[in-house]
């Protein structure tokens, strides 16, 4: 959920940033258009000032209008009158008055002659409060205003326009959705891999620990076994030395032979230990689960009795052949059953454990359910982690070891809670287990 929200937020932010940038580009382009239009209008208006002194002499109206078609008409004045310099005449026309001459200018025609055509959604030319020319709807997204620096025609040229939504590169604007999905996907993948790696490292450390423990035990056993022959050799040698010093060597060969015999025994013990160390290949045998289950129950007789636990089983009779080291399967069941007993110590008479063994497709499936309170949410996640325990006296190695053994048999183990019951462990063993090691 959080990941989807993150993705949505990042996508929206990126799309907004990209969209804003493209809109800004459109705005810059339109601003440039406006500047060209403004410049062209300024040039045209300045031409009016330039032509006024020349017009009275001109007799060729057609020629003038050919060059400046926006000058519709002009009128000469005999005497100086007091006129406003600009007088609106309606329909986009205005009179430009000087002392002796008035010219009528048509703004629509003037705009027609421009290179930059009126491509704006709104275009207006105003003189103070009077609108001389207006075209389009003034309600636009963008707006530009600038006054013309002309002494006689100080108009304000206003333009307005809207963004061209359809022209925006939408596929590019929404592309961050894909990009962020990819980034978040990769992040999730990385996290999952890391978690898997961490858990694998932890298990490897645990296995190493077990190996060291075993080595420790072996070393202790070895010291115990070697102690006696070494002490004997020491005695024989001391005795032999004493006899030689007393010049009585007759018994010395016998003593040395006894010492040699002890040394040979040490040698035999060492090779036995060596064998134990290197005998890493456990013996695979056909497993009779019914029998093994009875054996485990027997081994845990005291605990089951003390907790008044009812034990039941449903073991299918036509199971596929199952090859494994019997001690491993015994250890797996032993660990799970003792946990189930421990989980139900508080409720005698209502405590129960049920084992079900069946064949599913080609797999052998074992399910062990109990009547306890089930696994806590944390235990559900970490039950197979070494040293995870919720019990004060627990070590947290039982289920980790079980998991290791199941994996070595190429099987899988899953933990869950069952409604109306407690914890449930399901083990799947694939066929062809002979090559397990
Ligand atoms: N049948 C079960 N019911 C409830 N909790 C269980 C059961 N089996 C295992 N657990 C939980 O998993 C934890 C780890 O079990 P385990 O590895 O055997 O270590 P330990 O028995 O030393 O605590 C237990 O402390 C317990 O919280
Ligand atoms: Mg345990």
UniProtKB/TrEMBL annotation:
InterPro entries: HATPase_C_sf (IPR036890), HATPase_dom (IPR003594), His_kinase_dom (IPR005467), HisK_dim/P_dom (IPR003661), HisK_dim/P_sf (IPR036097), Sig_transdc_His_kin-like_C (IPR004358). It comes from the Bacteria. Its EC number is 2.7.13.3. The chain crosses the membrane at residues 168-188. CDD domains: HisKA (cd00082). It is an enzyme of class 2 (transferase). It catalyses: ATP + protein L-histidine = ADP + protein N-phospho-L-histidine. Residues 221-433 form the Histidine kinase domain. GO terms for molecular function: phosphorelay sensor kinase activity. Pfam families: HATPase_c, HisKA. This is histidine kinase.
